[in-house]
Amino acid sequence: MPPAPRRRRRRPPAGAPRFDPASFTDGLNPEQRAAVEHRGGPLLVVAGAGSGKTRVLTSRIGHLIATGTVAPDRVLAITFTNKAAREMRDRLAASLGPTAQDLWVSTFHSACVRMLRPFAGHVGLTRHFTILDEEDCRRLLRDIADDLDIDVNAVPVAGARAAISGAKNRLVDPRSFSIGTRDARANAHARMYAAYQERLAGADAVDFDDLLVHVVTLLRDVPEVAAHYRERFEHVLVDEFQDTNRAQAAIVDALVADHRNLCCVGDGDQSIYGFRAADVGNILHFAETYPDATTILLERNYRSTGVILDAANAVIARNEERPDKRLWTDVEGGVPVALRHADDEADEAAWLASEARSLIESGHRPGDLAVLCRAKALARPIEAELVRAGVACRTVGGTPFFERREIRDLLAYLRIAVNRDDELSFRRCVNVPRRAMGDASIKRVREFARRYDLGLAATLERRDEIEDLPVRAAEGLDAFCALLDRVRRAGESAGPAAALQTVVEAGYLDHLLAAAADADERAWREESVGQLLAIASDHGSIEDLLDAASLVMEADDADGDDRSQLLLMTVHASKGLEFPVVFVVGMEEGVFPDRRCLEGAELAEERRLAYVAITRARERLYLSRARRRRMRNQLVMNEPSRFLDEVPPELVRDLDEPEDTAPDGASRFAALRATLGA
Description:
This protein is an alpha/beta fold. Helix content is 47%, strand content 12%. The protein contains 27 helices and 17 strands. The strands form 4 sheets. A 7-stranded parallel beta sheet has the order 11-12-10-13-14-9-17. α3 (82-96) links the parallel β2 and β3 (104-107). α1 (30-37) packs across α2 (53-66), α5 packs across α6 (157-169) and α9 packs across α10.
């Protein structure tokens, strides 16, 4: 496709603050400067780990505004985590001041919510649609499996959810999915997918993936909406482009179809989300999609020592289809990569805890250290040993704030208050606190709705007609509906904090505290409610609060700026973070790489995962493996990971365990119990 004619530069509005374009290029290396000053048209910045990509993105946005190329409100910048979006906004605010408030800087899903709500009617939703979280999605699928008489032992809900999510991210609708089925399980998934979409539509609800799919539909099938957003966003910038899936790439392509002012930043060597339908081909074949694109390589690393980069380069070089780049740094040499061959997971954990304590005693803060593992379960014995050694630590990806029982209860009240068709929220909170609306009464409500083909909102309006509903249950349902009216009015007049306070004061807090096991739990639960009220006060409407809560992701729990605690996390959760000292544990065949990913594209992604893990380290890198490890309640003998063999031996120092630091029996027993979840 030939490039579109260059548009006349938009002049900044009268009275707008003026910025010096040079301030956004000072201190940049030649490649970074070229990316920042690129005049227009498609641009791909292949940014290696630690090469300053966030600075390039924010500097490019500032430079576009400072030169008068584009007005701030005509810029859309997209990244993949809320944490990365906050960092980008903070940097832009520091350089642009109040002008930065006019920019759209958000995650893909947050941007899609914002784009979808004003035009929701075009895809069969109201602007008050509910966004289901993962637990709600699985609960809905369990209901559907029951309705369709599908055995969840033979067709697990988790597998069905993954299949449906993957289909949506590839833009495969239920009908096309059904046509492509090849076996009984796939056929069951297809039936569940079709019923799932019908139930979502009936509840005026979407899941995370639907946010993308519906925006693709708007941009492809509704010309006036497509024209609106193409005119609105004159420059589109996408971070972590290697992690985009087909739906996200389609959104980007549609937004820039007229002006083609697209800047994508990413690194094919760091594409690690294939299990979430990320398509590394989007970045590897960018030049085929945009033949007139300019490509700039950022290979200078500002994070790690030369030893760490040489190790990373050696591992990733084994992948065949990858960008032609090699990271380098001015920081030559460095501490050799430390390699530990442990006897078992208990030995590995005891050694790591001892080494961590020594590093902290020698001047490191606990948060300077991170432990990365391929699977979350590998962190259990290590966490137990760290606690025993007195090392402050935290495992990323525990029970996040918005998944706590009381938080989910309170948010369910808000959801059903603004969307009376939200059956899942209704079932969660209608009997909390108790209103004599047990399972039997809820079943009668659902049967009435099915008999008359009514949505939940219409059913609640006609609740007086429900037969055989006990008097106390009918009174409880009346009280519940009256409370929802008060909650909605409070939200409309005084905001979401007032709406929540209405629920809390209507008996919820008393119920919550009465159910607590002891004083400590009561204090903890009450503090959670207080935290939610504080969060709610920062949002202007119930919908804003619910959107923010729905769009929180696991990666946001991994705060690399907190130095008070050592972090244990999966390699996936470590993406975008860096630490002075990194331990990568479980470096064994069948563990890392995972036994299910030992060939083809899956092995290539495992190697990219190892590359990401290695490049999180700034100064020191430890790699460890256990000769035997208990896996699925069996003791398994494991060979060293092939990735260990790929690190040049001259970069590695083998660690011999001194006899006097061998783990004692109590230590080994505690770590093994932690492994088994005992």
